[in-house]
Amino acid sequence: MCVHRTLAALAACLTTLVLTGTAVAVPATTEIKPGALPRGADTAIPHLEGKTVVDGDVRVRVRAAAVRLLGRSGSSYVVHTQNRDFTVSRLVRLEADGSRTVIAEGDEGDLVEPLLASDGLRLVAGAYRGKDTTLRVWSVATGQVEARRHFRGYPTVLDARGDQVLLGVWERGTLSWDLSTGSVVRLTKRVGGSASLEEDLLSTYTADPYQGGCTVVSRISDTGDVLWRSCTERVESFAPGGARMVTVHLLSDGIGPNQASVRTLGGRLVARYTVQGWFGGLTFESSKALLLETNGKKQATTVRCIKADCERAEDLRPVEMPRAG
Question: How confident is the model at residue 321, as a pLDDT?
Answer without folding.
Answer: 75
